[in-house]
Specification:
This protein has helices at residues 2-23, 26-43, 56-64, 67-76, 92-104, 115-145. The chain is an all-alpha fold and 146 residues long. It binds heme C. Keywords: Electron transport, Heme, Iron, Metal-binding, Signal, Transport.
Length: 146
């Protein structure tokens, strides 16, 4: 009579493993991987004050900006943070996963962005780019006056 017990124990164990996997936040896997390959070069050591994952104090004001705004502004580039994380081939979706992982590792509870969140991020990024283009056009106008 030992076999069924063993099998049901095995079954319960498999189920226990499968449930968290099915619910896993993809930012924990995809986002972390992108962070490691593309973002860590600067962020792991805080190069030029890049906020380090795990530094809750540095991340608190960033997390307060909200996922859509922070992700969009970082994507377009902000101060010493290069646009697209300095990786022109990186998609916005992958970038957003990396930001979600970094924020989650630093006191935020950000999930991998779903379709609705990606829509908001795209909208914010487009607006931010529009502002940048206007500023650059104004600069160009100044040159034309010379
Ligand atoms: C070449 C170095 C470098 C790389 C590579 C880099 N970052 Fe950054 N990042 C920075 C620096 C520096 C800052 C701080 C900017 C500042 O406040 O001046 C920053 C800031 C940020 C911020 C906060 C933006 C804000 O509004 O203050 C986010 C989010 C971010 N990075 C995400 C990423 C992600 C995601 C990647 C990888 C896909 C990445 N970074 C790759 C240097 C880098």
């Amino acid at each position: 009579m030992k076999k069924p017990v063993l099998l049901s124990t095995l079954g319960a164990w498999l189920l226990a493993c499968a449930v968290p996997l099915a619910n896993a936040n993809t930012a924990d896997t995809v986002g972390k991987k992108i962070y490691e390959t593309t973002c860590a070069a600067c962020h792991v050591n805080g190069v030029a004050s890049a906020p380090k994952p795990g530094d809750a104090k540095a991340w608190a004001p960033l997390i307060a900006e909200g996922q859509a705004i922070l992700t969009a502004h970082a994507w377009v580039g902000v101060r010493a943070m290069p646009a697209q994380g300095g990786a022109p081939d990186l998609t916005l979706d992958d970038f957003a996963q990396a930001v979600a992982w970094m924020a989650s590792a630093s006191g935020g509870n950000w999930k991998a962005p779903d379709a609705a969140m990606m829509h908001r991020i795209r909208h914010e990024a487009a607006e931010r780019l529009e502002q940048d283009i206007k500023a650059k056009k104004a600069m160009k106008k100044m040159l034309e006056r010379d």
